[in-house]
């Protein structure tokens, strides 16, 4: 960073750049006469890629030299990696996800840092140049490729990269995503709730109607259906848990509520009575008997 003009303290201000290969003793120096200069380029065609140098920058003006900055280590430009990753493996996690892993290139001395890896993934009926590309950072040697088509053959290849570019690609590996899970029709299941009174039978004549409260097990909001009969039919999604409770209502107000009844996800194991299930329709019937106590609050 350049020195502000108010801190240059005189005319003829400039910079002294000193540098040497890391591990050597003698400094090479050059003068940059412009006070606005913010860079210096040292050119040497024989300089190996990614060579470390120690560098410090000082200042001077017409009165003499000032102090130097702390020494820092910089590198000459690097080249892209020269070897491909090895031991590339891929496995299908689901109909849309693949996990791929690899080992770093077999190379004892790199002509640059490996800053990460690029995974290319393309479907068998696609061109490789249109492949999906995912980049990892650092020494991470596995990643997940998502949003793929189910039951499809994919090719995957991995290559290392750095600031100079990407290196050679590994050999491609093949993997087929899993088949998508067969989906059932979303027609609701019919749940029949029958209500039996546990008190003497004449109580039933004082009950005007039965509010049946039900809600999705993971929601707080409650739906209500009212009936003046001792049975009610509810249409509920087949793939969710539900909570049901019933309370009688008379001229005297609400009666005591029944215990909460949990209706689990309906499957073949829960299908009873005359209902049936098929793999194509997934329309099930379940019979749920709820015993409640009816309490009339009017004077008898």
Automatic annotation (TrEMBL):
<dbReference type="GO" id="GO:0005886">
    <property type="term" value="C:plasma membrane"/>
</dbReference>
<dbReference type="InterPro" id="IPR036116">
    <property type="entry name" value="FN3_sf"/>
</dbReference>
<keyword id="KW-0677">Repeat</keyword>
<dbReference type="InterPro" id="IPR013783">
    <property type="entry name" value="Ig-like_fold"/>
</dbReference>
<dbReference type="GO" id="GO:0030424">
    <property type="term" value="C:axon"/>
</dbReference>
<protein>
    <submittedName>
        <fullName>CNTN4 protein</fullName>
    </submittedName>
</protein>
<keyword id="KW-0325">Glycoprotein</keyword>
<dbReference type="InterPro" id="IPR003961">
    <property type="entry name" value="FN3_dom"/>
</dbReference>
<feature type="domain" description="Fibronectin type-III">
    <location>
        <begin position="1"/>
        <end position="79"/>
    </location>
</feature>
<keyword id="KW-0449">Lipoprotein</keyword>
<keyword id="KW-1015">Disulfide bond</keyword>
<keyword id="KW-0130">Cell adhesion</keyword>
<dbReference type="GO" id="GO:0098632">
    <property type="term" value="F:cell-cell adhesion mediator activity"/>
</dbReference>
<keyword id="KW-0472">Membrane</keyword>
<keyword id="KW-1003">Cell membrane</keyword>
<dbReference type="Pfam" id="PF00041">
    <property type="entry name" value="fn3"/>
</dbReference>
<dbReference type="GO" id="GO:0007420">
    <property type="term" value="P:brain development"/>
</dbReference>
<keyword id="KW-0732">Signal</keyword>
<feature type="domain" description="Fibronectin type-III">
    <location>
        <begin position="84"/>
        <end position="180"/>
    </location>
</feature>
<dbReference type="GO" id="GO:0007411">
    <property type="term" value="P:axon guidance"/>
</dbReference>
């Amino acid at each position: 960073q350049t020195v502000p003009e108010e801190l240059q303290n005189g005319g003829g201000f400039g910079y002294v750049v000193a540098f040497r290969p890391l591990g050597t003793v003698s400094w090479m120096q050059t003068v940059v006469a412009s006070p606005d200069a913010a860079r210096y380029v040292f050119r040497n065609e024989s300089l190996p890629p990614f060579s470390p140098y120690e560098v410090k920058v000082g200042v001077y003006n017409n009165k003499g030299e000032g102090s130097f900055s702390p020494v820092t280590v910089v590198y000459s430009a690097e080249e892209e990696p020269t070897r491909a990753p090895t031991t590339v493996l891929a496995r299908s996690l689901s109909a849309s996800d693949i996990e791929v892993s690899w080992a770093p290139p077999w190379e004892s001395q790199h002509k640059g840092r490996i800053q990460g890896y690029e995974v290319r993934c393309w479907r068998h009926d696609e061109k490789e140049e249109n492949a999906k590309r995912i980049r990892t950072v650092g020494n991470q040697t596995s990643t997940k490729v998502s949003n793929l088509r189910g039951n499809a053959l994919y090719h995957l290849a991995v290559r290392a990269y750095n600031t100079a570019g990407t290196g050679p690609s590994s050999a491609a590996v093949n993997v087929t995503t899993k088949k998508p899970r067969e989906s059932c029709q979303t027609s609701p299941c019919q749940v029949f709730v029958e209500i039996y009174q546990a008190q003497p039978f004449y109580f039933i004549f004082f009950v005007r109607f039965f509010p049946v409260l039900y809600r999705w097990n993971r929601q707080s909001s409650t739906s209500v259906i009212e009936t003046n009969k001792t049975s009610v039919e509810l249409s509920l999604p087949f793939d969710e848990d539900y909570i049901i409770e019933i309370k009688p209502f008379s001229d005297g107000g609400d009666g005591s509520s029944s215990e909460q009844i949990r209706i689990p996800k309906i499957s073949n194991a829960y299908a009873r009575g005359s209902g049936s299930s098929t793999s194509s329709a997934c329309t099930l019937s379940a019979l749920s008997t709820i015993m409640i106590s009816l309490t009339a609050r009017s004077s008898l």
